[in-house]
């Protein structure tokens, strides 16, 4: 039997080993090479591309492996600035990840799909890809790529002069970049938003962005290249002539881009240096039918008008109007203006289907919930009634306890005062009684302080004393009797006159210090508790139902104190 069990265990272990080896080699060497390429992608994208291109196509087996290879190679091509205009490489990733991928895999696929559409000049399809990617934002962990997607979406909005959307998406991207420590990219997006606010002539918002950008650039000097053009536009747009002149004179010898050169020309024209402005802009020769050519013509027309060269300005204006009209027709021929609307309609249709399903399930859940609610209300009513009855009882008990507590505190204070008086006459007392009085007075002071301040720290000596008392009941009861004999002599004489024994007097002293019948019984823990009580009542001549013995004893003590 033992041999069979051992043989069975060996078979299980062998099977597990085979499964483990099989799972480790599930994707083969190609998967390991793809891991290597992905690790190199950010730092050395050229090396990552070499690794991927050296993976034999025959070793990439299965749809998942093919999808991963396709996506990684598309990323590597993009990072190496190799623009792709077809989907030959990315298509396996689109086919697999859009349906089966995790949010990060879907986002990457949508982003690089959008990049290819951009390379094709199909801005409408690119926008839809970026929008689909951004819809996944709550599930993705790749914040860097999400920020890239937002920037790409903003760029397409800028091409359609939707400046508000351009600003919005760049601001979202900038916050993401900053959150993950990509400060240079954050500066770039913030300055894009700044440019948008300058175009909208919103100085207040532009000032807010500058207050964010300047500290970031001070911390990251490489970001100054992105801030300078925006700062130039801000100065020309919002600052007084003296500040504009100081800025232009300071940076006039810098190597400027075409766009920066045109802004310089606009700045000199604004401060009245028209010849200098014309000299600067004449060195520019932008390509026709581009955004730069339209901006160039607009600035040059303004300079010519300020110089009084109205004929040249009018001729240039006619060319400008024709170019602007062609540009607008080109924009209107594209679907990008309506891409976000179409996306919203698609999302609305999807939401309507989800709403319909929610209504059906909501109705069913509502019926079920109504049944539960009726049952719960009935149960709550029953519990409320029970709680109310219990609360009334608890309040009644609490009032009784508070009343008893006041009586006990009064009793403790009286006993303390009597003991203090006795302490003043210590010469007349024997040493055992002196010791009992001193110890008891210290304990009473602590206990009263605890009741007054509600601070248990004051009752620590009392609590330690109680622990001792529980262990030596006879000693405690004797010390209590001696203390009462010293502080309430008339009361103690009265007890002795009625023929009570020492044990019975000890028993009554427990009532005198504030304990009730149940507490006395629990303390002395004797079956004779009720017999002792009955015999004492007989000696006092108290009827069994006339009064509680604890109330009788405390009232008797008060009478002798008068």
Write structural notes for this entry.
The chain is mainly α. The protein folds into three domains: 1-141, Alpha Horseshoe (Serine Threonine Protein Phosphatase 5, Tetratricopeptide repeat); 145-238, Alpha Horseshoe (Serine Threonine Protein Phosphatase 5, Tetratricopeptide repeat); 390-561, no CATH class. It is built from 26 helices and no strands. The relative contact order is 0.03. The model is unreliable at 16-26 (pLDDT under 50).
Core attributes:
3 domains, Serine Threonine Protein Phosphatase 5, Tetratricopeptide repeat, mainly alpha
C-alpha end-to-end distance:
95 Å
Count of runs of 4 or more consecutive helical residues? 26
* Total individual domains: 3
The tally of strands reads: 0
**How much β-strand is present in the residues?**
under 5%
Largest sheet: none
CA gyration radius, whole angstroms = 47 Å
Name the poorly predicted regions.
16-26
Question: What is the H-and-E element order?
Answer: HHHHHHHHHHHHHHHHHHHHHHHHHH
Helix- and strand-based class?
mainly alpha
Summed up:
With 562 residues, the protein is an all-alpha fold.
Helices, strands, pairings?
Elements: H1 2-24, H2 28-40, H3 45-53, H4 63-79, H5 91-100, H6 103-120, H7 123-134, H8 143-159, H9 163-179, H10 183-199, H11 203-219, H12 224-238, H13 241-251, H14 258-270, H15 274-282, H16 291-307, H17 310-333, H18 339-424, H19 431-453, H20 460-471, H21 473-487, H22 489-497, H23 502-512, H24 517-524, H25 529-540, H26 549-561
Helix pairs in contact: 2-3, 2-4, 3-4, 4-5, 4-6, 5-6, 6-7, 7-8, 8-9, 9-10, 10-11, 10-12, 11-12, 12-14, 13-14, 14-15, 14-16, 15-16, 16-17, 18-19, 18-21, 19-20, 19-21, 21-22, 21-23
């Amino acid at each position: 039997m033992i041999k069979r069990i051992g043989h069975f265990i060996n078979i299980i272990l062998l099977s597990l080993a085979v499964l483990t080896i099989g799972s480790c080699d599930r994707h083969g060497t190609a998967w390991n090479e793809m891991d290597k390429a992905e690790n190199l992608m950010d730092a050395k994208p050229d090396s990552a591309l070499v690794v991927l291109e050296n993976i034999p196509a025959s070793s990439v087996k299965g749809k998942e492996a093919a999808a991963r290879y396709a996506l990684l190679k598309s990323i590597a091509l993009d990072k190496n600035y190799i623009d792709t205009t077809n989907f030959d490489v990315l298509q396996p990733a689109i086919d697999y990840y859009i349906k089966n991928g995790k949010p990060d895999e879907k986002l990457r696929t949508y982003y690089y799909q959008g990049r290819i559409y951009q390379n094709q000049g199909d801005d409408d399809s690119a926008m839809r890809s970026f929008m689909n990617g951004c819809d996944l934002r709550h599930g993705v962990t790749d914040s860097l790529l999400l920020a890239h997607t937002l920037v790409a979406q903003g760029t397409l909005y800028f091409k359609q002069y939707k400046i508000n959307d351009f600003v919005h998406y760049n601001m979202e991207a900038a916050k993401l970049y900053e959150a993950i420590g990509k400060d240079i990219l954050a500066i770039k997006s913030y300055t894009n938003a700044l440019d948008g606010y300058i175009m909208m002539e919103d100085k207040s918002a532009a000032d807010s962005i500058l207050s964010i950008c300047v500290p970031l650039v001070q911390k990251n000097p490489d970001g100054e290249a992105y801030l300078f053009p925006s700062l130039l536009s801000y100065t020309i747009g919002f600052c007084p002539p003296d500040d504009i002149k100081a800025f232009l004179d300071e940076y006039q010898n810098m190597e400027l881009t075409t766009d920066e050169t045109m802004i310089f020309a606009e700045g000199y024209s604004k401060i009245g240096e028209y010849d200098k402005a014309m000299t600067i802009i004449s060195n520019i020769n932008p390509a026709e039918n581009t955004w730069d050519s339209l901006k160039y013509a607009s600035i040059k027309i303004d300079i010519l008008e300020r110089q009084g060269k109205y004929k040249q300005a009018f001729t240039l204006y006619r060319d400008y109007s024709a170019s602007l009209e062609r540009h607008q027709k080109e924009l209107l021929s594209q679907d990008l203006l309506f891409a976000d609307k179409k996306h919203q309609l698609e999302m609305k249709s999807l939401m309507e289907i989800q709403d319909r399903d929610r209504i059906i399930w909501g109705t069913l859940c509502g019926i079920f919930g109504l049944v539960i609610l009726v049952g719960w209300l009935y149960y709550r009513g029953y519990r409320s009634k029970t709680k109310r009855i219990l609360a009334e009882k608890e309040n009644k008990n609490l009032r009784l306890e508070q009343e008893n507590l006041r009586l006990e505190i009064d009793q403790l204070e009286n006993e303390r005062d009597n003991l203090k008086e006795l302490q003043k006459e210590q010469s007349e007392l024997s040493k055992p009684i002196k010791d009992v009085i001193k110890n008891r007075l210290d304990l009473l002071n602590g206990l009263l302080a605890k009741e007054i301040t509600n601070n248990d720290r004051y009752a620590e000596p009392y609590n330690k004393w109680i622990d001792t008392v529980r262990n030596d009941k006879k000693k405690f009861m004797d010390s209590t009797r001696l203390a009462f004999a010293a502080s309430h002599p008339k009361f103690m004489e009265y007890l002795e006159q009625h023929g009570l024994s020492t044990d019975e007097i000890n028993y009554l002293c427990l009532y005198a210090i504030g304990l009730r019948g149940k507490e006395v019984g629990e303390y002395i823990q004797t079956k004779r508790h009720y017999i002792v009580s009955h015999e004492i009542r007989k000696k006092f001549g108290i009827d069994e139902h006339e009064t509680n013995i604890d109330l009788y004893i405390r009232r008797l003590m008060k009478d002798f104190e008068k």
